[in-house]
Amino acid sequence: MRSVWVEDLAAVRDAALLDVREAEEFLEASIPGSLNLPLSQLAGRLGEVPSGRPVYVLCGSGGRSMKAVKLLAERGYEAVNVMGGITEWYRAGYPVTFRPAAE
Q: Which active-site residues does the annotation give?
C-alpha cells in the first residue's frame, strides 16, 4: 500500500482527494475540494471515485483510509493513503473548511 504524509500531499497539484469519513464528520470539517464517500458506502459507490489518476484517501487519522485504499486497490484504482488524515493536515496548518457553529 502506498502512503504519503500530509506534506507530500500538499505538494501535489490538483490532487483527487477522497475523504472516507462519515457525512456528519465531513460536514464539521473538510479539506476544500475533497469528495466525501464514507467507507461504509464506498463499495457501492465506486463509480463516483475519480479514475485515471492517483486518488489520495484520508479520514480522521488514517485507520479507515487504509481500509479504503485496500478496497480501491483491489478494484484497480491507484489509491494512496494519507497518513494522519485530516487531523495531521489541520495540525500542519493546511486549509480546512469548518461548518459554522449553530447559534
A: 59
